[in-house]
């Protein structure tokens, strides 16, 4: 079963969730942002070593603690690795007081009916069993809404809740992430369809889920989800906004906390000294924390 202390931290804690879960496709971009060009490494193994070093540097920073960072979402390889000789999930909870989550999706299908469903997740049952054994609290799975298409949005919500049920069967907390692309012209209509579809799915749900949603067009639009008894927490992705812009919008959405990835690591560099790195990370964490506690 899910850890009661972790549940209480996510439910009632003040802070946000760090998304440290870039996978194979997005890792080169994350490393480039961190100041390591693709020409500086060769092959996947070297790439994953470098991204793990970056994530370890973030997690071991004095700025990165459960006082402001409630949880962290990990990539599967990060879960399987260690920090200071301790498995990553164990290190997060025992040394940092940060609740560990795991990204489980394997990327997106091509677009149909205005949405991109998740690709099949082979070996999901084995992965969930391994995650539960490793001390992971919950999972995150992402799909994308590109248009206000009721057929597509119904399909995306059905798939998210079906995967969520598999996750919950292993005693893990699912974060369902049907991301609405922030640049689409019919974003408000897509958000309305998505919220209606999620509310209907919640009615038939045993237990609780978390939701990871794009920041809405209208402030506090997702309050029905924030207040829903079957939703442990609503978290927001930055969705391509700069950190300052994402923070400004997030602060207008009460009861929703950040789950930022690129917007968290913005400004961090492999070339920084430890003192410089910690100062930049601390400023980022402080600003995202402030926006999350409104």
Question: How would you describe this structure in keywords?
Answer:
single chain, 294 residues, alpha/beta, TIM Barrel
Task: Write a compact overview of the structure shown.
With 294 residues, the chain is an alpha/beta fold. The chain is built from 12 helices and 11 strands.
Helix and strand layout, with pairings?
Blueprint: H1 4-12, E1 16-20, H2 27-33, H3 44-60, E2 69-74, H4 76-80, E3 82-83, E4 86-87, H5 88-96, E5 99-103, E6 115-116, H6 124-133, E7 138-145, H7 150-168, E8 173-180, H8 187-203, E9 209-214, H9 223-226, E10 231-237, H10 243-250, E11 256-258, H11 262-265, H12 274-292
Parallel strand pairs: 1-2, 2-5, 5-7, 7-8, 8-9, 9-10, 10-11
Antiparallel strand pairs: 3-4, 6-7
Helix pairs in contact: 2-3, 7-8, 10-12
């Amino acid at each position: 079963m899910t850890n009661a202390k972790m549940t209480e931290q996510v439910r009632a804690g003040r802070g946000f969730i760090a998304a440290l879960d870039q996978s194979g496709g997005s890792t080169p971009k994350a490393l480039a942002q961190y100041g390591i060009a693709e020409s500086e490494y060769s092959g996947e193994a070297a790439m994953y070593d470098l991204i793990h070093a970056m994530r370890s540097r973030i997690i071991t920073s004095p700025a990165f603690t459960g006082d402001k960072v409630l949880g962290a979402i990990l990539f599967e390889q990060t879960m399987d690795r260690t920090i200071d000789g301790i498995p990553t999930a164990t290190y997060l909870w025992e040394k940092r007081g940060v609740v560990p989550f795991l990204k489980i999706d394997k990327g997106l299908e091509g677009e149909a009916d205005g949405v991109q469903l998740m690709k099949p997740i082979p070996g999901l049952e084995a992965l969930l069993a391994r995650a539960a054994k490793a001390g992971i609290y919950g999972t995150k799975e992402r799909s994308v809404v590109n248009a206000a298409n009721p057929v597509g949005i119904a399909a995306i919500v059905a798939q998210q809740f079906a995967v969520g049920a598999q996750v919950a069967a292993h005693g893990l907390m699912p974060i369902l992430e049907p991301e609405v692309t922030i640049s689409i012209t019919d974003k408000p209509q897509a958000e309305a369809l998505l919220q209606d579809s999620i509310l209907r799915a919640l009615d038939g749900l045993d237990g609780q889920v978390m939701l990871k949603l794009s920041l809405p067009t209208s402030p506090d639009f997702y309050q029905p989800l924030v207040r829903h008894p079957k939703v442990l927490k609503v978290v927001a992705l930055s969705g391509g906004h700069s950190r300052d812009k994402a923070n400004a919008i997030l602060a207008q959405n009460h009861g929703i906390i950040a789950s930022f990835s690129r917007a968290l690591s913005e400004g961090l560099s492999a070339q920084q000294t430890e003192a410089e790195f910690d100062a930049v990370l601390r400023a980022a964490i402080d600003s995202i924390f402030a926006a999350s506690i409104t």
